[in-house]
From TrEMBL:
GO terms (BP aspect): DNA repair
Highest classification ranks of the organism: Bacteria, Pseudomonadati, Pseudomonadota, Gammaproteobacteria, Lysobacterales
Keywords associated with the record: Hydrolase, Magnesium, Manganese, Metal-binding
Cofactor(s) in the UniProt record: Mg(2+); Mn(2+)
Cofactor note: Probably binds two magnesium or manganese ions per subunit.
Active site: 109, 150 (proton donor/acceptor), 252 (proton acceptor)
Gene3D superfamilies linked to this entry: Endonuclease/exonuclease/phosphatase
Keyword Manganese: yes
Binding site for Mg(2+): 10, 37, 150, 152, 251-252
Family matches, as Pfam families: Exo_endo_phos
Marked site (Transition state stabilizer) residue numbers: 152
The protein's name: Exodeoxyribonuclease III
Chain ranges of the Endonuclease/exonuclease/phosphatase domain: 7-252
EC nos: 3.1.11.2
Length: 261
């Protein structure tokens, strides 16, 4: 085993933010990257530029919306699943799973669920149930697994959001969303950031509106979960906030963890 850095980053449009992605990859050099919100069809994915940066890639795109990808430094990830099981009619590109650098990596973009109540919130909760069922199977395999991505869940009012007051009706904070998150964790997953920083205010997303970046009015919705087989290797975890401060940035910042050998 070797030391590894695994990151997740909602890129919010990979074609328009490709320079920012490449600059981050060059500076931070993560070993495995999960990307969300590619917002491009498969044929428009910038494979050549990413390979030139030293990364192999798998991607599951969708025109204008959604889309996920897994990048691995110095190798091409080996795909094990495309799409979350449990709903043959679900056409959203929200889940991709692969083996890379000795790990099984599930990259996910959980539905936002707004407005709620309504069909979009119902879809969010149904998708969450499918994720919980699939995650249990991954745990049962005994393999070292990471489930990384934009979960669209703010776990707590106290440490994971600047102020819940104006978000009380948002799907990200609803009791049902948080209960599903807790049920997922209860399977035995370790929330990397919170495990290493139990009392810290940590944000991974800052809305474009109302100067929320400038005011540090953020939310923590991007998460890295480790299976019990992998958790003992966790050494560091953090957020590359500098990326959010760059021109034409995504509204998310890359979130990462470092695993020991």
């Amino acid at each position: 085993m070797t030391a590894l850095t695994v990151a997740t980053f909602n890129i919010n449009g990979i074609r328009s933010r490709l320079p920012a992605l490449l600059a981050w990859l060059e500076r931070e050099r993560p070993d495995i990257v999960c990307l969300q919100e590619l917002k491009c069809p498969d044929e428009a994915f910038p494979q050549a530029a990413i390979e030139a940066a030293g990364y192999g890639a798998l991607w599951h795109g969708q025109k204008s919306w959604n889309g996920v990808a897994i990048l691995a430094r110095g190798m091409t990830p080996l795909e094990s699943r495309r799409g979350l099981p449990g709903d043959a009619d679900d056409s959203h590109s929200r889940y991709l799973e692969a083996a890379a650098h000795g790990l099984i990596v599930g990259c996910l973009y959980l539905p936002n669920g707004n407005p709620q109540p309504g069909p979009k919130f119902d879809y969010k909760l149904a998708w969450f149930e499918r994720l919980i069922a699939h995650a249990q199977g991954l745990l049962d395999s005994g393999h070292p697994v990471v489930l990384a991505g934009d979960y669209n869940v703010v776990p707590t009012d106290e440490l994971d959001i600047y102020s819940p007051r104006s978000w009380k009706k948002d799907a990200l904070l609803q009791p049902e969303s948080r209960a599903a998150w807790q049920r997922l964790l209860a399977q035995g997953w370790t929330d990397a950031l919170r495990h290493l920083h139990p009392d810290a205010r940590i944000y991974t997303f800052w809305d474009y509106f109302r100067q929320r970046w400038e005011r540090d009015a953020g939310l923590r919705i991007d998460h890295l979960l480790l299976s019990p087989a992998l958790a003992p290797r966790l050494r560091e975890a953090g957020v590359d906030r500098w990326v959010r401060g760059e021109p034409k940035a995504s509204d998310h910042a890359p979130t990462w963890m470092r695993l020991g050998a």
